[in-house]
Design brief:
This protein is an alpha/beta fold. Helix content is 31%, strand content 26%. The protein binds S-adenosylmethionine (SAM).
Length: 389
């Protein structure tokens, strides 16, 4: 059992496959787990049963990321770090002009599966378990024939004859998260690879400072379901703009465009809360111009307008009250409107949201969003409702 991949071989053998099938047929619950494990231990190697049960649990979590999660194999840290199918497809789209590429730091193959659709991919990972699982998961997603998996340090790999690569450096090791902008291998190593002629995409943390991107590179900020997930740096061979906000699953994308300065005015009838990919990519002004909206403060990324605009790039709220920040007055406004549940959004405000929630002591039946922010550099509050309800 010194070989860290022993359990993979055991699970892939006919007996292991039978064990996985038996587990799949009877979904695990807190109520049946002990009984099920006891029964399985009578029939299968006892050391393999907890491994198979662990896989069944990981598969259940992995369904949020992968269509064919129930055919795939994982480790908990590698699943956590894996790109979702939507993110991976967005990465793969950039390589449309390439029929051969490398997936560097392939993990369990989250990106590999999408990258290998329509091209051959050399996949490399230092970790022997991840490397084996990438290969198995590529097979499970019907792209195994396009994939060659190697267990190697990518820094020692020859990429001769491979014109393009995607690299997803480890952002944590031994349970510890690296600082934003650092990974394994380092960004410097990745930039050097691109400087030597490889068309390169680098997956990085969503908080990556824009100034880390060298001249001529694109930084794409990606959100999924309204949550900021990642930034991706594209080398000049793959870049099309300096910055971009991409929203998944729709794929809607916003890029910087020259235009007149956006006005700063008092809030109007509607407030637009831009998607985090828009704020991180610095494309709030582009959004304002496209919606015919204005800013409520020079520094703050909320927009306002007098029309109930609909945009994938932000959430539109109806402004019920707009006042200088005052807790007593906020409580009064909310009580008068019969509001009992508030979601507090703050931007440019130092207040303690939990403390305010406690102090509001609301009893009404309606829900509202309270926005705590700055307007013309003054602490401000807006009570808003959802115009769709
Ligand atoms: C963030 S994960 C990759 C996730 C993958 N893109 C996916 O979607 O499943 C990073 C991987 O990098 C690997 N790694 C770290 N340093 C490496 C190196 N120098 N060479 C090869 N692989 C490395 C780790 O073992 C880990 O599997």
């Amino acid at each position: 059992m010194d070989d860290p991949t022993w359990w993979i071989d055991a699970l892939m053998a006919p007996g292991g496959q039978e064990l996985m099938a038996e587990l799949a047929a009877e979904p695990l619950t807190a109520a049946n787990e002990i009984r099920l494990i006891t029964r399985l231990r009578e029939k299968y190697p006892p050391e393999l049963v907890p491994v198979a049960v662990g896989q069944a649990k990981l598969r259940a979590r992995a369904r949020a990321k992968f269509t064919y999660a129930d055919r795939m194999y994982f480790t908990a840290p590698a699943l956590e770090q894996a790109s979702t199918e939507r993110m991976a497809r967005n990465h793969a789209r950039r390589y449309a002009g390439f029929d051969r590429m490398a997936d560097l730091c392939s993990g369990i193959g989250g990106d590999l599966i999408a990258l290998a659709e329509g091209r051959s991919v050399l996949a490399a990972d230092l970790d022997p378990v991840h490397s084996r699982l990438a290969c198995i998961n590529a097979e499970a997603n019907a792209v195994g024939a396009a994939v060659e998996c190697v267990c190697a340090d990518v820094r020692d790999l020859s990429l001769d004859g491979i014109p393009a690569a995607f690299v997803d450096p480890a952002r944590r090791a031994g349970g510890r998260r690296f600082q934003t902008g650092s990974g394994e291998p380092s960004l410097e190593w990745c930039f050097d690879l691109a400087a030597r002629g490889t068309a390169l995409g680098i997956k990085a943390a969503p908080g990556l400072p824009l100034e880390l991107a060298p001249k001529g590179w694109e930084v794409e900020f990606v959100s999924e379901g309204g949550e900021l997930k990642e930034s991706v740096l594209w080398s000049p061979a793959l870049a099309t703009v300096p910055r971009r906000a991409t929203l998944l699953p729709s794929g809607d994308t916003l890029v910087p465009k020259e235009g007149p300065a956006v006005e700063v005015r008092m809030p109007g009838e509607y407030l637009i809360d831009p998607d985090p990919a828009v704020t991180r990519s610095g494309t709030v002004e582009e959004l304002a111009r496209s919606l015919d909206c204005w800013k409520i403060d020079e520094q703050i990324a909320f927009l306002s307008g007098d029309q109930d605009v609909r945009t994938p790039f932000g959430r539109t709220l109806r402004v019920e009250a707009s006042l200088p920040w005052n807790l007593k007055q906020l409580r009064q406004v909310l009580r008068e409107a019969g509001i009992g549940v508030v979601d507090i959004r703050k931007r440019g405000s130092a207040v303690d949201v939990d403390e305010i929630q406690r102090k509001l002591k609301l009893t009404g039946a309606r829900a509202a969003t309270v926005v705590l922010t700055r307007v013309s550099d003054r602490p401000w509050m807006l009570a808003c409702t959802d115009p769709r309800r």
